[in-house]
Amino acid sequence: MFPKFGGNALVVLSLLLSLTGCLAKQYVVRPPAPTLLPAIPNPLTSAAESTVSFPVQVNLSPFLLAVNDDNVIPKKFDHWRNSIKNPKGVEYKYYAERDDFAVTPSSSQQANRTNSGTVIHDWWKGIEPLSSSLSISTALRYKIGAPPLQCGDGAELPKRATLNGNLTIGMTPNYGVSASVTGVTLNAIDPCKINISDTDVLQEVKNQLTETVRGGLSNAVARINTLTARSRVENVWHTLRNPIPLEPNAWLLLNIGHVWRSGFFSGGGDLIDDTIHVTAKPVLVFGAEPPSAGGALPQLETEPASTGYHGAADAQLYGTLPTTLANRLASTGFHVVADIPLDYPSLSRSLATRLQGQRVAVKGEFVHITDAAILGRGGNQVVIRITFTGDAIGHLYFVGKPEMNMLAQSVQIGGLRLDLDSEQLLQKSGPDWLAGSSISELVTGETVLGVTPAIDRMRDLVTKALNRELSPTITTHGTVTSVQGIGVFADANALYVRMMSEGSLNLKVNDKQ
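Above: the chain sequence. Below: its structure as tokens.
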């Protein structure tokens, strides 16, 4: 029989052997962190081209004062007391009087060219306007006497007509307003009943009226040619060149370029509108305030607008923006591009939440994941560190390249694989079962990163950009209709998601300068 103390020794020895066996099964896996890769620049993507548009108004009051001056264009054409002979020796007389001229709304300009009944008209040598056409018109009452023609005389009421002056009006490369007379038209509302022998008389009356009016119009147009829109355009140009602050370290750069016009004036009364367009490639940038864009106001490109631009921001100087062909040619979108940084600590917390507690087992051996982190490596790569316990304790490193899934609007780590040091450590000192486990597939499936934080920040920043005062005379008003990720890039400091926003922008320019 063994002594009593010998039994206790056997129990202690058995326990020690058991613990030793457990400890022998638990592997320690702690490879070194992957080395950082040389920094490479974020590949550039061309910003979508937008167009910032705003109308400039031309005040025609000086011109209208001139054309309605009786000394410039007579208000009465009195040749009733003294007869006139036409080249064929036929005597005739006529009398006409007009009201004040007014600018004809654009929609009626084409109608002025249409003959209705008997029309006394005079197109200026058939030359088509090279730019916008502007019409002024007034009511005319007339009578003609020439045996046997009696039109609007005696018991008859005076005949009614409309007198129309047609101008070509445009802008010079230096933002001056340029106009010239293209013709004068007299449309009879109450036509004379004439025969073949009367046509010579009507032609002479037409020549007398239209030549007199055309000569006066040519003198009055000089008032238009002294007008300029340069100061208003320069105000917008210099304002849009400056960085627009959104947050202490976030700025909107519009990157403006060409300035052009659509070539169509519109409106009526004393004020007519032309639309000026400035091309822009808006981007959001982060960090210190960038410098203002250099360069003076370029010359105005006067070719007709192209519909190929990606967006327009309508603007108004007074009240509601008029519906013009210029505004219809420009689309209604406004696009902004930005690389929104997502910090690695936030991404790590999100990944750890999904992976913590996950178990990987192989033939009775297992590990529990206790933590996970995403780290920047540079070279457009990221590192995934997985910490675990169980039959093996420690961590492993995985490396891969972020890729944007535009359809799912998410970032996934493409080509995810064990880092070289992690792979060699498992091959040399095991455990073999961990190397052959499904931990790589598990990590790959969970490293799908949503871009909602980037979308939310982009929407917030662009909304701020579209609704603010840029200067005492210029304010913006707009909305964001959509935001989506279009690319991704990783450096050692953050994961950058390239976002594209679409929306609308109203640029309101007060005319108080």
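The chain has two domains: 28-48+310-513, 60-224.
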